[in-house]
Amino acid sequence: MVKVVVGLQWGDEGKGKLIDFLCRDMDIVARFQGGANAGHTVVWQGNEIAFHHIPSGIIHNHITGILGPGMVVDIPVLLDEIRYLKELGISVDGRLKIDWRTHVVRADHKEEDAKDKLVGTTKRGIGPAYRDKYGRKGLRIVDIFYPQYVDHLPKELLDHYIKYHDALSPYVCDTVQLLHDAINEGKSILAEGAQGTFLDVGFGTYPYVTASHTIAGGACIGLGISPKAITEVIGVFKAYTTRVGNGPLPTELEPELESSLRERGKEYGATTRRPRRCGWLDLYWLKFAVKLNGVDKLAITKLDVLTGLPEIKVAIGYKEELPFITDDAHPIYVSLKGWNTDIRGVKRYSELPLNAKRYLKFIEDTLEVPIKWISTGPERDAIILR
Ligand code: IMP
Questions:
Q1: Which of 52, 353, 358, 363 qualifies as a cystine partner to 341, CB 3.0-4.6 A?
Q2: Whether 280 and 153 share a structural domain
Q3: pLDDT in tens, 263-282
């Protein structure tokens, strides 16, 4: 059984928390794309842990965590992450696996990315690392282990990375074989997407996107598993919209409302701490995201952040018909009534105020997919399972 969890907006949908919840019934969690640009935050024993490379599910000590071949890994940052988890009492030894084929984000990739002015990247070297992968001059983990077989890189460059051989060696293996064996043995696998649908390099708001395929199809490419192996796709979205970095956000709020929502939702980037831009929920493009990913079940997060708003708007279409997302298009909004009852930490659907239920129903009716999980706060157990 392979479940894929993907973000349906511009990342930061709260995937980390849902994954943490789902992991209770999983054996393996595998990341299939991206690198240290991701920031999945989980609140664990009073500590707010931000995961960058390592799948957040690793905090459950029965879980094997995989960094799949579709990722790009910043080795010193990864080693720091492993150390940091150890200090918190979470040992990943024997449970963390990195694929041979995974590409390396090099220091020069980060230097180049630091000069980006257009996209507003996380400056983690992601774009240059993927460019070199596709340009056939990337450095892979396997190249550090078998330098004598490398034809495509200068020796000095390889020599610089060989120092990581010993530190990486406990973790490196063929994760494709591992996953195929697990599938055959009937184990439960969760493919953890990073970023979100509209940051996908092919289907997002190009060029204001990341450099990998963030949609569910990316799980096959990024893990080396067949599309036939995927049994369920879960789409996660926030009760409103946020994005960090540049690019269109047609439902962006006027400054006053935006900053009050940002404060209430603590909308600051987990990786870069940049303030996130905030907008109303865009059901028109969310519906497209549902289609692209083949979403079977939905999870909505941060519903509690909307409490106290007298009116909640949702975009259901655009005045202009344009085949891409642009700030030049004018959203058509439907206005729904808000609620005042504090719902933070609510664990039962029946305890939600009527207008919150109406909001959820409107979303389900428009997207034609059931909402199975409703997150009502940052705490691990602040979630309604329907
Ligand atoms: P890059 O992935 O660092 O190249 O950045 C490309 C775009 O994706 C920028 O707009 C980033 O802000 C955005 N981005 C990358 N990773 C994340 C994430 O985990 N959450 C939200 N936005 C992200």
A1: 353
A2: no
A3: 999 999 888 889 999 999 99
